[in-house]
Every structure is written in C-alpha cells, then in structure tokens.
Fold this sequence. Notes:
By secondary structure, the chain is of the alpha/beta class. The protein has a single domain, classed as Alpha-Beta Barrel (TIM Barrel). The protein has twelve helices and eight strands. The chain has helices at 3-14, 25-30, 37-51, 62-66, 69-83, 100-110, 134-143, 159-162, 172-184, 226-232, 246-249, 255-275; strands spanning 18-21, 57-60, 89-96, 121-124, 146-152, 193-197, 214-216, 240-244. Strands 1-2-3-4-5-6-7-8 form an eight-stranded parallel β-barrel, surrounded by six helices. Helix 3 runs parallel beside helix 5 (69-83), helix 3 (37-51) crosses helix 12 and helix 6 (100-110) packs parallel to helix 7 (134-143). It is globular, with a radius of gyration of 18 Å. The relative contact order is 0.15.
Amino acid sequence: xxxxxxxxxxxxTHGPLCVGIDPHPALLAAWDLTDDADGxxxxxxxxxxxxxxxxxxxxxxxxxxxxxxxxxxxxxxRLLAGFAGSGTLTxxxxxxxxxxxxxxxxxxxxxxxxxxxxxxxxxLSPYLGFGSLEPALTAADExxxxxxxxxxxxxxxxxxxxxxxxADGVSVAQRMVDDAAxxxxxxxxxxxxxxxxxxxxxxxxxxxxxxxxVLVPGLGAQGAxxxxxVSRFAGTAGPVxxxxxxxxxxxxxxxVALRDAAHLLGEELASTAAGSH
Length: 277
C-alpha cells in the first residue's frame, strides 16, 4: 500500500492525532527513569505498549535518541521496528536537509528500501532549496514512504525566514507548499509529500491544492487548542495531523494512562471538529 493509503487507513481507524515520542531528560526523570540508554529503552517500550494499534501516528524525535550515541540510535531502530505492521504509522522527526551526495546519504539512512532507520515517513528541511530534496523524495517514492517538508513552523523565530517574500511576492512558506503540491499533482488517493504547518498561529497559507497531508505541531503544551487546529485548518484538502507530545506523555509512565490520555485528546479533537460543521 502507498503511504497515503496507509495513512488514510490509520486515520479512519484511530483518528488524526499524532503522538510525539520525546524522551527528553526532564521527562525521563518524571518517569523515574535514568538519563541513559537503559532509561531510554524503558521509555520506548512503554510508549510502544501504549500507542501501538491505538493511535494513527507516532512521531519519535530523533535528537532525544541520538544524544545517547549509538546505544540510543539502536533503541530508536528497535522502536521503529516495533511499530511496523501494528497499524500505527511512524513519522521520524529528524528534519534532514542537505545537497548532493550528503542528501543521498540521508536518503539511504532513512528512506530507501531497507533503510536502517526507515520509518513510514520522515520530516525534511527544504531551506537549501526544495530541489535539494530530490534524492529523498525519489527514495521515499521507491520505498512507499512519506515525507513532511517544513513550511510554516510553530516556533516564533521561523517567521523571519518562512514569511519572507520571494521575488514574485509569494512567501517562502507558500512556495514550499506549492512545490509540495506540484510533486503531489495527480496522485491518488493523494501524494506522499506532506508539509509541516504549526498550529500556534494563523498561518496564512493556501493549502487547497496540496493533495497531501499536513502535520500540525503545537497542540497542547505549546499553546494551540483543538479549536485552534480545527479553525485554522478548515477546508484543508488532505489529512490534518495535530501533534501532541507533552500533553499526552505527562500522563505516563503507565501505558494504560498514556493510551487513555491519547484517546481523550483524540475525542476532544473529534468533538470539536464535529461541532464546527
């Protein structure tokens, strides 16, 4: 199945919520886990027990695994493999972006068939030019994976670059959306090139032609409410995937409590969306 078809199936079954897996040091401590590879492994195991076959997408943040070196990356590999086939898709948040042979290397690591750190999808940074992503886009196509390209992120500092206008008066963020839309044109049920658009502010983007999914960080601890997400992304063509990490993970370390927190937030999103129609 294509990435788009797998995502549609997961969202139809579990709803659109994407749960971030962010094992930062303070959260490891809050779960009474050590800030080392053993604590990281225990954290990952509890997240797998809580979220596999329970939510549509999980988003491990690569940095919190990489900070533990090779042992941490091994935990990440095991976590990704554990979700494979569960009906819960994995979106690895690594924000990779470079040029030429270096981009080829990232594509080999994360996106090609048999990639050692292969997830269902990967976040990419296009700010060396959207065309620099071509090796990653090609590898993702060949392997049936998806990508999410940064467009208008939730952090305030992003505006200086992303809201700047190009020579033809279009914002840089809109150009990223338009380039993704061109890549997705004609794909059925839709394309596998999504964009990342934060839910913490009015984004001002035209997403109607994207024909792909939109990842929406910022739900919960960063300040965006379910009502914000519903109103700011009304009319978007394609799945809108709100992300919550801290808002769900603070219910841990018990796996049942984590799963219940994700379901409760998912129900709030669904009821808010239903009430807006």
